[in-house]
Amino acid sequence: MPRAEVGTPKYIANKMKSKGLQRLRWYCQVCEKQCRDENGFKCHAASESHLRQMLVVGENAGAHIAGFSSQFQSEFVSLLSRRFGTKRVLANRVYQEYIGEKSHLHMNATRWVTLTEFVKHLGRSGIARVDETEKGWFIAWVDNSPRALEKQEASMKKERATMSDEARERQHIAEQIERAKAETAPSPESPPVEQELKREEGAEKVVLSLAMAKPATTSVSTGLKLNPLKANPLKANPLKANPLKPNPLKKANVFKTAGGSADKEHTDSSAEKKRPAPISAAEALILEEQARKRRRMDRDNND
């Protein structure tokens, strides 16, 4: 049955029925015909026009497939660069926008069976940067145009110049810090040199005296100088008992040995412990004043 002529009601009805996207497996790229169901595609494949086209393609199938593949790649990359630029985008989103046009070249005519294989090919060719995530394959177009390369090279030169200036400035600051530290730091002292003691000829003999020097006398506010080594010239208190005189009522703590003899060493140490310490000059003045007051009171009582 021949095709309906353009503008006839049959042609318009067929266009309305084929509105929108149809199944990709029911599309014949050689004849550029989209079938609505499997039965229609089977009838088209058995038609005389399709068989003639397949004979022409069969003579050089590789060239036709390569031509379809290059056309699909150029259209896809053109849409990617024009629509998204160098931004990272989901590959399926770009493909959905590409097939939105009804007269596009279908992927079943190319040498790539799936979109994943096509995306991997773009990554291997250096046309785009691809990476796989949980959401799918993402692609980003690589701009290799001469203008973009010149711009990139100029930006790299500017960055290197900026970095070199910063590095030079950091080095200058570090040198200033080291110079300031060297100026403020004290000079390291040389270690002491060991020298031997040698006596020169004709030198005087060194005499060392081991005699103890007399301690200096302490001065009191009254101006009286007392020597603590000399005996106290003041009279002792007659009312105070002599601390050196033993108490007859108190028994001496004497331990006898097994033979009946007293332990002299123990008694000597106990006597030394009981012996009072020598009094100072201030205490001696206080005792003298107390003794003077007592004598005055005794004289007043006798009178």
Describe this structure in words.
- One of its GO terms (biological process) is DNA damage response.
- Keywords: Metal-binding, Zinc, Zinc-finger.
- Residues 152-171, 178-200, 236-303 are annotated as: Disordered.
- The chain is mainly alpha-helical and 303 residues long.
- It has two domains: 9-146, DNA/RNA-binding protein Kin17, conserved domain (Arc Repressor Mutant, subunit A); 226-302, no CATH class.
- The protein is 47% helix and 8% strand.
- The chain has helices at residues 9-17, 38-45, 48-59, 61-83, 91-98, 115-125, 146-184, 264-274, 281-302, and strands at residues 27-28, 33-34, 88-90, 128-133, 136-141, 218-219, 225-226.
- The longest helix is centred in the middle third of the chain and has 39 residues, at 146-184.
Summarize the structure.
With 303 residues, the protein is mainly α. The protein has helices at residues 9-17, 38-45, 48-59, 61-83, 91-98, 115-125, 146-184, 264-274, 281-302, and strands spanning 27-28, 33-34, 88-90, 128-133, 136-141, 218-219, 225-226.
CATH architecture of the largest domain: Orthogonal Bundle
Spatial order of the strands forming the largest sheet: 3-5-4
Poorly predicted runs are: 218-226, 251-263
Helix/strand order: HEEHHHEHHEEHEEHH
Residues in helices, as a percent range: 40-55%
Rounded mean pLDDT is 75
Q: Please write the CATH class name of the largest domain.
A: Mainly Alpha
Radius of gyration: 62 Å
CATH superfamily of the largest domain: DNA/RNA-binding protein Kin17, conserved domain
Euclidean distance between termini CA atoms? 177 Å
